[in-house]
Give the backbone structure.
Amino acid sequence: MKNLVLSFLSLVLVSVLITEIAQASTPVQDVKKIITVLKERNYKNVILEKNFGGTDLQIVFVDNGLRYTVYYTGVNTTKEFISFWVRPEGTSGLKFLSTFTDHDLDGVVDFGIKGSSDGTIFDSKIFNVDEVGIPKTTLFRDYWQEQLDAAYKAALRRLL
């Protein structure tokens, strides 16, 4: 009986660990570092910057052959989010473009979409959540979380 209980507890623990790993995200403290640098406009290695009325900011940087366009809203507001548009450096059009968003600045992806193979419309690897943050589908969630994590890491390398 004791071995059965230990086996059951081991399975529960493994299940919890697998769930936590699957839902891993960029640490909130790293997101906050990036947001602080954006708010203070104290970033490095930016090739383009545009301010939209004092509340929204767009910057562009390149890291490891990828061009990142970062759109941050919330400089002077309480509703903040950050979006990334990513494409291989030197490309254009929808075919190579991926875009994804972190609505609550919690390091968890809330939206992701990739350009189509023919480059005419976004129709590939769509993921999004509803207005209260519940995923409409979990299809591609892990893919977009990996993209968001990579973008935050690139921002940490280039902007700080």
About this structure: The chain has one domain: 26-159. The longest strand covers residues 56-63. Confidence is low (pLDDT under 50) at residues 5-22. Residues 26-159 form one domain.
